[in-house]
Structure formats: structure tokens, C-alpha cells
């Protein structure tokens, strides 16, 4: 096990400083800035109210085909896939992409959370700590305050204080400070890899703009909500350096679709 994997297993995250050069980052920043401006216009009310991220970046809603191809090339680069394949031993599977930015209201509070808390019960969140894995690869496009994490919380349940704050029990609020938090500042070109299961919160300020790519173990339940147009077509797959994560997603979706078709067929015969 290499040092990065040791850090991930023990702490739930690691940082590769200066992972991307300015030349590698410049076209990505230009593309995602254009995406963000288009998203803000179409989702003005969401942005004004409380949004701090957008999703499905590789879809067709705000990008043309050439821009999507550029993004697929970036995600499927050997350089990036080598990192995620080291972390996800079961086989990295593309899950989603997100763009994180500052809220429109500068007084808006950030909040402690585990990603699964928005669709899993407490008992299911506890079970999720033993897998399957979901991993964020965060790529800051500008220098930013970074993220605050609770090291090791990807493998253990909340302390009483952490749970009270995260879920706002009693008089606690999810933006209150936690003594167990560790701040990881990020600069443009860094790469932060962290578990979606761990307790964390983004830090606002400095006009942050971070691109997150989410990968997971090849588990069908984790791919329920992925949109078809966020995945590359066959003619694009064959152009990519390492299309394995996209190929795994497409294979699982095809299998799920076949299972649904079989169910419909059986129902029609009954």
C-alpha cells in the first residue's frame, strides 16, 4: 500500500499539491467558468436562495459536444485515473461531477454533513461506513479556503457532539465549530481526494470554484440517478486515454436496463 492509500484508509483523504500545471488547468477553468455563468442564468432563483454547487457538468444542458469531449478527455486522463484506481480497488466507476462555488449571500453559513445523509436513514448511514466506497476528486480552479474534514470519520460513526451538530439536534446548528475538524487549504492546481462518507464542510470565500469528479465502487445502487447524457458515446470512448471508469458505468446501466426489460416482459406474460 502506497502513502496516498495509507492516508486515505486512515484519515479519509489526501492532497497532491501542484498536481496540475497552469497549462493543464487553464482550458478547464475557461470551460467550467462558461458552464457556471450559463448555469447561474438558468438557475437564478436556486443560486439566489442558497445553492453552493451544480451537478451533471458533463451533460448537454450547458456544454456543446466539443466542450463535453474536452471534459471527458480530462476526466479519463491516465494521470487522473491512476490516482482513483489506486484508491478504489474494486474498480473505479464514474458517478457524477459537480462544481462548487460561493453562495450568493455572503452571510450564508456552511454546514457539516456526510453525503449519504440526504438519501439514507441513520442506520443506513452507519452501514455505508463499511462500503461501497464513494470518492471525491476535488480540483480547485483558483486558490480558496478549502475544506474542513473530520479525519477518520469515513470509517467510524459520529461522536455525540458531531452527531448533534451535523443533524442539528437540540440547540445545536450544523454550522457550529467542531474541535475534531481539520482545515485543508487548497490552491489552484492541487488535487484533494476524500471520502464522501466522511463528515466535512466546504469553506466559503475567495470566489472559490472547484471541480469535483465523483467515482465509486461498481455498485448498481450508487448509479441510480446518473443521467444518460452525462456519459460519453461509443465514438468518444474510443478516443479517451483511460475510459475504464465510464465503461464500468455504462456496463452497469446496460445490465440494469436489461433487468427492467426482463421484468416488464414477465409482467406482460402474466
From TrEMBL:
Keywords associated with the record: Dioxygenase, Oxidoreductase
List the GO molecular function terms: 2-oxoglutarate-dependent dioxygenase activity; iron ion binding
Tell me the Gene3D superfamilies matching this sequence. Answer: q2cbj1_9rhob like domain (2.60.120.620)
Keyword Oxidoreductase assigned to the entry: answer is yes
Query: Cross-referenced InterPro entries, in alphabetical order?
Result: Phytyl_CoA_dOase-like (IPR008775)
Tell me the domain of life: Bacteria
Which cofactor(s) are needed, names only? Answer: Fe(2+)
UniProt name for this protein: Ectoine hydroxylase-related dioxygenase (Phytanoyl-CoA dioxygenase family)
Native organism is Sinobacterium caligoides
